[in-house]
Amino acid sequence: MPADEIVNQKRALRAELKGRRRNKPQILQDRETAQLTAQLQQLVENLEAHSLSAYLSAPTEPNTRPFLNWARAEGIRTLLPISRVDGLLDWTTGDGETEAISDLGVPEAVGELLGPMAIDEVDLMLVPAASVDVTGMRLGWGKGYFDKMIGSMGKCPPVFAVLFDDELVDEVPRERHDEPVDGVVTPKRVVLLSKRAKALGLAEA
C-alpha cells in the first residue's frame, strides 16, 4: 500500500476515535476510570513493579490520574514524559500536582529533568494510544515520540498501552517506524499480545 494512503488511513481513524472519545457520557467516563485504575493497580502488583513510566492523561483519554495518585502513595517511582524539540522524551517524577500544557497541546508534568536515559530504569511502561490491534501494533497520535523511544531501547521493559475497551481492534494501519506493544490495559481487562508478555506468566483479567 502506498505510504500516503497509510497516512490518510491513520488520520481518518484518529479523527474517528477522537470523536468517539469526546462523545462519551460523563457517567460512563467515571465508571471506566474506577475500573481502569483497578486494572492498572493489578498489573503493577502482578509484575511486582517498583518503578514505571506513565503519562498525564488528556481530558478525552482514559483517565490515568487516580492510578498515578495510587502509585505515588504506594512509593512506586513513576516517570512522566516531557517532549523535546528533537523528537525525544525527557522524564521527570514531578510533584504530583504541578503540570503544564506542552507545545503539542497535551498535559505534561513539571519537575527536574532526568534525561532520556532515565527510562532505562523502569520495570513497566504505560503508553497512550489511539488504538492497538491484536498483533500488538499500536496506533499513536502521529508525533512518533513513543515509537522512537521504544525502538531505541536496548533492553525494553514490558510496554502496555492504555485504551478504552472498543479500541482493541483486529488491525490498524502500520508504517515502518511503528513499534508494537506487549499488551493493553482497558477498563475491563488486561490483554497480553506478545510472546514476551505471555511468558511473564500474567493472568489476563
From TrEMBL:
It comes from the Bacteria. Keywords: ATP-binding, Ligase, Magnesium, Metal-binding, Nucleotide-binding. It catalyses: (6S)-5-formyl-5,6,7,8-tetrahydrofolate + ATP = (6R)-5,10-methenyltetrahydrofolate + ADP + phosphate. Signal peptide: none annotated. Its cofactor is Mg(2+). InterPro entries: FTHF_cligase, FTHF_cligase-like_sf, NagB/RpiA_transferase-like. The keyword Nucleotide-binding applies. This is 5-formyltetrahydrofolate cyclo-ligase. It comes from Gryllotalpicola reticulitermitis.
